[in-house]
Every structure is written in structure tokens, then in C-alpha cells.
Amino acid sequence: MKMQRISELNALERSLEENTSFQRESVLAILKKVREEGDVALFELTETFDRVSLDALEVTVEEVNEAYKELDDEMISIIKEAAGNIREYHEKQKRQSWFFTRPDGTVLGQQVRALDSVGIYAPGGTAAYPSSVLMGAIPAQVAGVEKIVLVSPPGENGKLPAAVLVAANEAGVKHMYKIGGAQAVGALAYGTETVPRVDKIIGPGNIYVALAKREVFGLVDIDMIAGPSEIAVLADETANARYIAADLLSQAEHDPRSAAILVTTCEQLGLDVIEEVKSQLESLPRKEIAAQSISAYGAVYIAATMDEAVDAINKIAPEHLEIMTEEPMELLGQIKHAGAIFLGEYSSEPVGDYFAGSNHVLPTSGTARFSSPLNVDDFMKKSSVIRYSKQALLNNGRKIASFARLEGLEAHARAIDVRLEEKR
């Protein structure tokens, strides 16, 4: 982790296109097999990639009940409370249909409806994330999605992790399947004898899952093509170096390509954070991953002024932004681009990951410049509603026909003319 000048700052754009041609070929072959062979392909591919021979793809009620027995009562209580917080936060995001009437009798509006079905991908194996299940399923349920489908790769025992099953059940998921990888994305996009086709696929996964989501986009909707995780901390001389170092490492342990950046107006704080990162890194269970991340994508940038520091943050457009200054609220209005903003030294990034209630599915790699965290709107669609009155058509028909002829669309114009002729 090096100290650098603001002038050396680069945006955190890490493209999915880097060295993925081999993986894409594999993904295309897997998707083709699932589309043509359905369940047979899913059983074969699960045995090939997960080394598990399944008797059935769907999770049973008995397996869900077993999961509650496997997980200790305190953890179940924590999951339930987190689910409640997430639900409360997302309830505030619900939209309503709206209409208005003009004096000539025209009625215009927007009808808002939930998607019929959504598929949630939950990573498995050594990276089981029940929190991501909650973050995906609860906003969908709040939106009113009728069918929520969970897919996740099975473990060696042919089952899904207990925490994932409990989280899914607490989030109201009724359809759960023991499949992962690109084949799970294909099953959700095309449908099989067992797995229902859905309208949208969300959730994090490895490079094969990400590439598969991109390939099926258009046939179904997707949430995003997520890149490696990232955190930026904006700090002044009042910040706690130990806290900052711990928070930077909380993202560095995700992936060797995760980014952890401090932007500060205080050079001494930067030096202290670098030393703290070295010290704390030594005792991390995922030390090797975090060390690679810090080495490749960790940095401390020194700004001459806080305005310069804020400009740097807006250039980065980080997934997670922590503001650790004497008065963090004073800077909030200046932040234009960030996925989630954590204010003050007690608002550590994991607070948002697990418990506060805000969504942790966030835009990465600078895409916070134009996209938002996963939210209830992502599970809804909107239809325009138009009811023109006779008087409105008489008043505006000639203008509409003229506009159509301007674009060379005579049939459009005549569709209006025929009505005007009848009304004369």
C-alpha cells in the first residue's frame, strides 16, 4: 500500500473483458446444453463441476426444517432481525401508480406493477452468503413479486448451507434449487422441467455466473455485472487510523482484485493507516487474499484541500464510501457518485453489509456514476397510460399528423386523419 499524490489517481474501472475468452466459450457451451437438455444437463453439470450426484434439484421442506436445527438459536434470531431491518428500509421505496386529468378530458398516468418472477443466485461452496439472499429476496417481496426462485450450488453433502436456507425462508422464498454456476443462470433464463423460467436474474457469482448473466440479458433482465468489491475512505486529521485500516481490510479480504483506498488531507494519518494495515493484515484468516488486494489495488492519496479530496472521491465513484471527518454530514451534499455512503466513525461498512437495512448489492468499478444500489424499483415495471378524449383529439390531431409526416410516416398520420374526418 503506497502513498500517492492525487494527480496519480485512476478510476477503479476493472473490466469484465480482461482475459475471459476461454470462460465465455465454456459459458456458451453450458447455456446451450441447458437450453437443449433441461434437467438432464443440470444433473450432469452439477456432477461435473460440483462433484455431487443429486437425486433431486429442488430443496425439500424437510431440508429447510433441518437447516433451522443446524443453526444455533442466536444466529437465527440475528438473521430474523436483519431481515426485519432490510424489510423496513425497502418498504420506504415503494411506488404507487399515478394519474392526472387535463381540462380537455385527457387522462395520463403511469401504472406500476411488480415483475411476475425473479431468480436469485446465491454463491455456495466456501463463499456462502445468506446476507445476499436477504438483500435480493426481501426487496422483491416488498415489490410484490409473486414467484421468487433461489438457486445455489450444493455442498459435498448435496445440500445448501443451513444459513442460506434459513435466510431464504425468512425472506419468503418458496422455490429453492441446488444448482450453481452458469448452468443455474441458464435454467432460470430458459426454464427446465423442474426449474421455472423467470423474468429477472439477480445476485453475485464468479466469472462464469457473471458472463452467463450477460449472455442471457435481453431474454431476461439482470441486476448488474458486478466487478470486484471496493471501498474508499474520505478522512481528515480527526479520523482513527485503526478504524480506517480495519475497514479497508474488510473489503480487501473479498478478492485479490478488491480495491481499498484512503483519500485524506492529513499525511500523518496516511502514514499511520499504512502501518495499521500491515499490522492488522498479519492476523487475518484470509491474509493471502487481502495482501494481494492491498498490494495491487490499495492506496493512500494525499489531498491539499478537502475540496480536492471530494473531487477525487467523485472521480472514483466508489461502491462503498466512508466519510470519517469531524463533521461528515457537511460533506454529504458534495458527494455526487457513490453506491453507499457511511457517515462517521461508527458507521463501519459491514454495518451496511449485514444489519442496517440498506442494500449491499451496489454498483462497482465506477458505475455509481450512473447506477444505484439494488432496490424495490428493480423488481417493478411501469406502463404509460393514455386516454385521449374526443376534444383533445380535435384540438391536437392536426399537430400529431403533421409531426408524423415530418418523419415520413404517412400511415401514422392517416390513423389520426381518419378520426378527424369522422368527427367533422
UniProtKB/TrEMBL annotation:
<feature type="binding site">
    <location>
        <position position="254"/>
    </location>
    <ligand>
        <name>substrate</name>
    </ligand>
</feature>
<feature type="binding site">
    <location>
        <position position="412"/>
    </location>
    <ligand>
        <name>substrate</name>
    </ligand>
</feature>
<feature type="binding site">
    <location>
        <position position="412"/>
    </location>
    <ligand>
        <name>Zn(2+)</name>
    </ligand>
</feature>
<protein>
    <recommendedName>
        <fullName>Histidinol dehydrogenase</fullName>
        <ecNumber>1.1.1.23</ecNumber>
    </recommendedName>
</protein>
<keyword id="KW-0368">Histidine biosynthesis</keyword>
<feature type="binding site">
    <location>
        <position position="251"/>
    </location>
    <ligand>
        <name>Zn(2+)</name>
    </ligand>
</feature>
<keyword id="KW-0479">Metal-binding</keyword>
<feature type="coiled-coil region">
    <location>
        <begin position="54"/>
        <end position="81"/>
    </location>
</feature>
<feature type="binding site">
    <location>
        <position position="206"/>
    </location>
    <ligand>
        <name>NAD(+)</name>
    </ligand>
</feature>
<dbReference type="InterPro" id="IPR012131">
    <property type="entry name" value="Hstdl_DH"/>
</dbReference>
<feature type="binding site">
    <location>
        <position position="353"/>
    </location>
    <ligand>
        <name>substrate</name>
    </ligand>
</feature>
<feature type="active site" description="Proton acceptor">
    <location>
        <position position="319"/>
    </location>
</feature>
<feature type="binding site">
    <location>
        <position position="229"/>
    </location>
    <ligand>
        <name>substrate</name>
    </ligand>
</feature>
<comment type="similarity">
    <text>Belongs to the histidinol dehydrogenase family.</text>
</comment>
<feature type="active site" description="Proton acceptor">
    <location>
        <position position="320"/>
    </location>
</feature>
<comment type="pathway">
    <text>Amino-acid biosynthesis; L-histidine biosynthesis; L-histidine from 5-phospho-alpha-D-ribose 1-diphosphate: step 9/9.</text>
</comment>
<dbReference type="GO" id="GO:0004399">
    <property type="term" value="F:histidinol dehydrogenase activity"/>
</dbReference>
<keyword id="KW-0520">NAD</keyword>
<dbReference type="InterPro" id="IPR016161">
    <property type="entry name" value="Ald_DH/histidinol_DH"/>
</dbReference>
<keyword id="KW-0175">Coiled coil</keyword>
<feature type="binding site">
    <location>
        <position position="121"/>
    </location>
    <ligand>
        <name>NAD(+)</name>
    </ligand>
</feature>
<dbReference type="Pfam" id="PF00815">
    <property type="entry name" value="Histidinol_dh"/>
</dbReference>
<dbReference type="InterPro" id="IPR001692">
    <property type="entry name" value="Histidinol_DH_CS"/>
</dbReference>
<feature type="binding site">
    <location>
        <position position="353"/>
    </location>
    <ligand>
        <name>Zn(2+)</name>
    </ligand>
</feature>
<dbReference type="InterPro" id="IPR022695">
    <property type="entry name" value="Histidinol_DH_monofunct"/>
</dbReference>
<feature type="binding site">
    <location>
        <position position="254"/>
    </location>
    <ligand>
        <name>Zn(2+)</name>
    </ligand>
</feature>
<feature type="binding site">
    <location>
        <position position="183"/>
    </location>
    <ligand>
        <name>NAD(+)</name>
    </ligand>
</feature>
<feature type="binding site">
    <location>
        <position position="407"/>
    </location>
    <ligand>
        <name>substrate</name>
    </ligand>
</feature>
<comment type="function">
    <text>Catalyzes the sequential NAD-dependent oxidations of L-histidinol to L-histidinaldehyde and then to L-histidine.</text>
</comment>
<feature type="binding site">
    <location>
        <position position="251"/>
    </location>
    <ligand>
        <name>substrate</name>
    </ligand>
</feature>
<keyword id="KW-0560">Oxidoreductase</keyword>
<keyword id="KW-0862">Zinc</keyword>
<feature type="binding site">
    <location>
        <position position="320"/>
    </location>
    <ligand>
        <name>substrate</name>
    </ligand>
</feature>
<keyword id="KW-0028">Amino-acid biosynthesis</keyword>
